[in-house]
Amino acid sequence: MINEKDHPVAWVLLISELDEAREHLEELAREMSQAGSIEESEFAVYLGHVYAHLNRCWHSRNLDEDIPVDQWAEYSRFPDDLEPVG
After folding, report:
1. Which of 8, 20, 52, 66 is geometrically suited to a Cys-Cys bond with 76, CB 3.0 to 4.6 A?
2. Which of 62, 46, 58, 69 is nearest to 10 (CA)?
3. Confidence of residue 84 (pLDDT cuts 50, 70, 90)
């Protein structure tokens, strides 16, 4: 896995994906709390967006550069080498 010392730019990009996921989850929770409901289709879009950030974070954990544009969709897919826990 990359680290800040050896790959500072890639590390910042990795952290950025986590920050984006957190921000979108906070926005979702805030909007749901305020509205008291949410349409399933809107909920799916929000969670799909959060998953895309988390998935890119996982897939780029060993990448020492930015995600190549032509691989963006692949890096956004749910990983097949990570089992949910809990």
Report:
1. 52
2. 62
3. confident
